[in-house]
Amino acid sequence: MGSHSHSGRRQFLTSGAALASFVMGAVRSVRGQTAAPEARPKDNLAYGQPSPFDNTIRRAPAQTSTLTDTALMTPLQDLDGIITPSGLHFLMDHVKGIPDIDPKKHRLLLHGMVDRPLEFTMDELKRLPSVSRVYFLECNANSRPLRGPNGESVQMVHGRTSCSEWTGVLLSVLLKECGVQRGTTWIVAEGDESNKYTMSIPLGKAMDDTLVAYAQNGEPVRPQQGYPLRLVVPGWEAIRAVKWLTRINVVDRPYMAWHESGNNADTIPNGKGLWFRFELGPKAVITRPSGGQRLPGPGFHEITGLAWTGGGAVRRVDVSTDGGKTYKEAELQQPVLRYAHTRFRFPWRWNGEEAVLQARCTDERGEVQPTIAEAAKNLGVTTDYFYQADHFNGIQPWKVNRDGSVQNAL
Known about the structure:
Layout: H1 11-14, E1 21-22, H2 44-47, E2 70-72, E3 91-93, E4 107-112, E5 118-121, H3 122-126, E6 131-138, H4 154-158, E7 161-170, H5 171-178, E8 186-191, E9 198-202, H6 203-206, E10 211-216, E11 219-220, E12 230-232, E13 245-251, H7 258-264, E14 266-267, E15 273-274, E16 283-288, E17 299-308, E18 314-320, E19 328-329, E20 331-332, E21 342-350, E22 355-363, H8 372-379, E23 398-400, E24 406-408
Parallel strand pairs: 4-13
Antiparallel strand pairs: 1-5, 2-3, 4-5, 6-7, 7-10, 8-9, 8-13, 10-11, 10-12, 14-15, 16-17, 17-21, 18-19, 18-22, 20-21, 22-23, 23-24
């Protein structure tokens, strides 16, 4: 790709060779979907592997008619802190296959309603000012299988969420270099895989905190998570976080491509529906003790779990040991970061009798996580609706039986 120098560009782009190759007229984009010749599996010892005694792994849910995509769920019950190891980050494969992309051939094109269409190589992107931020990702279908074969554990019910440190370039930096034209209201992001996964995002969010990420937890983004480049859209459903990012079209309306049309048609029984549901509601989930686990006996136990919200930061988590009759405030692990998982802890002395444990999140805007009954009342539906619905953030109760076994109480 040729290098060009243009006046008016920022100093960090004008020092040395220009960092972007301009695309004037016909779009030139080289897409490499074959591994580089020197690519080979990493040596397990050299890369580092968990102990063979550690069985902390992602697991696939039992197949049902509503789970048609490849899914691997994060083992929330086995993790501590707030960072999900890269190898345990949940996977929802909507594209039927993980492409092998040579980063030396990969390009990111920005075009459409811009003054200067630009195409970046990976090396050029990495020369731009970078940021590292801790953000959660959550599938819009998370917490949906509340009963049945997938309702037995926190991993199967709520494991479509993970939290990582993402490193890359703010999308706003790239859009400003292109010169967004008047009348622009949306961008359309496209992935470089076989069926061109495409999502529309309002320009306001794109210019705010949306990140073009090339690293996750200090290492290159893994192939299942979009290597070599993916979007991260903080606080919004993970289907917006386009993997294998190769093209951003700056436009004046949402394009409603095939993937998002299928995901956005959110209809409730009263006939009403929403085309777009971006932001994820406040949610707290107890991960220990939780379904499928067993308490060894009465006495002291620490109740712990994770809370998060698309509304910014978690401000408070309350825990109930009597099925929601009374609540007490839990301790939040510091620092509490916006759009990140927050670890909460609550001391509990179990007396050996039946108990129902649940947690409730309140975010910085004062929005409170509802019970499943409250959520149903708000929408004018029965609670059965939420056994298939997306964007469900209702409170999850776990029942502790007298023998110490724990089960889903919904």
